[in-house]
Specification:
heterotrimer; A alpha/beta; B mainly alpha; C mainly alpha; B: MetI-like fold; elongated; C: mainly alpha; 10 helices; 74% helix; binds adenosine-5'-diphosphate; binds magnesium ion; MetI-like (chain C)
Chain lengths: 267, 258, 256
Amino acid sequence: MIGVGNVVELRGVTKKFPVRSAPFRKAEPFTAVSDATFSLPRGKTVAVVGESGSGKSTTARMVLKLEDPTRGQVVFDGVDLATLDRRELFEFRRRVQPVFQNPYGSLDARYTVGRSIAEPLQLHRIGTRATQDARVNELLDQVALPTALASRLPHELSGGQRQRVAIARALALSPELVVLDEAVSALDVIVQAQILELLAELQAELGLSYLFISHDLAVVRMISHEVHVMQHGRIVESGTPDTIFDQPQQEYTRALLAAIPGSEIAR
Amino acid sequence: MLAIVAVLVLVVPFLPGFDTDTQDLGDNLLAPLQNPAHLLGTDALGRDILSRLSVAVRVSLLVAFGAVLISALVGTSVGLTAGYFRGRIDTVLMSIGDIQLAIPVVLLLIVLVATLGSRPLLLVVLLGLTDWVGYGRVVRSMVVSLREQEFVQAARSAGASGFWVIRKHLLPNVLSQVVILAAFEIGVVVTIESSLSFIGLGIQPPTPSLGLMINEGQRYLQSNPSLVFVPALAIFLVIGGIQFLSQNVGVRRSRSTT
Amino acid sequence: MRTSLGLNDSLAGQYGRFLVDAVHGDLGNSIRQSTSSLALVLQRLPAALQLAFISFAVGFVLAIVLAVAGELSTRPRVRTAMLSIATVRQAIPPYLFGILLILVFSVWAGLLPALGMNSALSFVLPVATVSTFEIALYLRLFNASFAESRRSDYVRTALAKGVPHSRVVIRHQLPNALLPIITVAGINLGVLVGGLVVIEMVFNWPGLGRLIIEGVTQRDYPIVQAGVVVIAVVFIVINFIVDLLYAVLDPRVRLA
Ligand SMILES: Nc1ncnc2c1ncn2[C@@H]1O[C@H](COP(=O)(O)OP(=O)(O)O)[C@@H](O)[C@H]1O
Ligand SMILES: [Mg+2]
């Protein structure tokens, strides 16, 4: 048995997508994730890295229950997600929140920052208008944004600011697990470092667990406690960031390492 | 162009001598600008054309607005449902739309009116129900891409139901496009309604209608071409004005969003 | 009388028998003329098809010619002007345009016959009415496609390599525009055959649409049914032909 201290466990998780094909030809489903097994200890950061198209986002979407596995189980806090009824699913949605890659698509262009952050509170009927507003200010403060931003629209913000807003929104329901799918990948290096630092602070402060998805091993090294390398939907190598960096076992992992800017010079 | 239409619809009914129905067989087939009591002349039954024109345009616009309201409502609901839920319901709804697009609208309406009648309210409903496919397709294609956007995924992850996502995120984001389309469709519906009235299956006399005025005037094409010209010009002003307006709205919209 | 028409049966029974008969090619007798309604309808089909096909062909070809000319013109004004005229034309309902043509060319100038289908000249006004509408429609579509391909890499590359502009337009931009527009055109042509109802009324054209309206106003429903069925069949046939055409034109589609 895997330890009780795990927020999330994936057990042999496989996801196949039906493929549209020419008529009269038999459609072979496409396997995006294949037999993935790993666990995420509470309060830790586990990273999944891999090239584009390797199945990372599909994995994240299954952990968020935006997608159901074809085979295998995603177990959250000891409970198989497939067994949740409506009420339990709604409760699950309070405890797990996403932050996505695209800072431009992650906020409804018609919603003010404050309204976007407050939406999860409204969905779960938490507090009154006044307490919600107060909570929005508190959250903005937590992600180091001025509270004056609450009345702004997304197009008035920079990419880094938007990503902070997305994080604030994800924190609104005080979740236990945050799934970060390429959450810093669209940002430039300096802003990336600031957001990673913020994430680390929030983790220490709130005891959050992170599932951190990225194609960039350099970023992964800065934040994660454990790394799983994914290729063609399979986990091909696992370990601590240091073992992955210092003794990569797979050709594929070495290729990912080599793709880090400046890695040649460092060697 | 729309200013002239507005004057026609809003001011003319308050002019002295406004009268759509009184027949004056001694003063019939009067040319325009001959008699100050009948500025645009009189028809074969001696009824005042300016008054009838005013009411006819008003009726056309009312019918068109009503029909467009219905079709926009139906089409937008269909598009939201099909685009968000995809799967079988999407296939079914869009197939219905494809089939409907393949049937000539006027022919369909002729058959419907023939079996169901042409009471004004029914006409509005029928026109509305035969014109939803355009909205359905546009809204569906927008929703198909919107639903994959991360703010929709984030809302779902926060526990939003399909209904919440549709009402709070998708509908507001497609609304401006629907309004642009609706503005354009008013002209289309005016055309269809006047075509139906022209062949006697739309607005029924004694209510004046543009199509019927043209049909009646056709017989006097040689002697009194103004009987056709005047309502023809009115139709052109209405449809052209709306087209012009909707194109400008469209252009301004696309400028302000980019 | 009621018994011979089967009106005493339930509605479902009547409809069921209609379907069975229809499959056997029997769409019932006309109530007024007590001949086979299908025969009456088929009698009118050639006139309807001729008007639709000729108008469509004239409109489609002229739209291509105008769009290519506009694309080749060095003055962008030319394109704008053509599109404005198209907009104006589209703001006039077809039946109204027809009446105005009759007024000018038959009543005033006395040049062309206005009503009926008696000689080749009878075609001029109805075809002009319908095809101008088609021109406006397809001119828009071609223009939009050209406007897009104009900025594409393959056009820029070809022009930069010194390929003559006319050759780029005719050999590259036009074929690229044709494929998607033909799909639209196939549906439109099918709709056109049944959609000319009102135009047929204006020009007293002995086509299908007019027969159907007469059927409606005289409550001769077997005629209406037969007309609708025939139009549906024509629509299906046209779309089938367009699909074949598409397979021939598009190198990517191969018939299995
Ligand atoms: N809804 C879907 N339907 C079909 N194929 C999909 C779907 N979602 C993802 N895929 C495919 O699955 C593979 C993995 O995608 P994804 O998980 O997004 O990869 P990554 O996030 O690692 O770039 C890709 O080849 C993608 O095309
Ligand atoms: Mg991804």
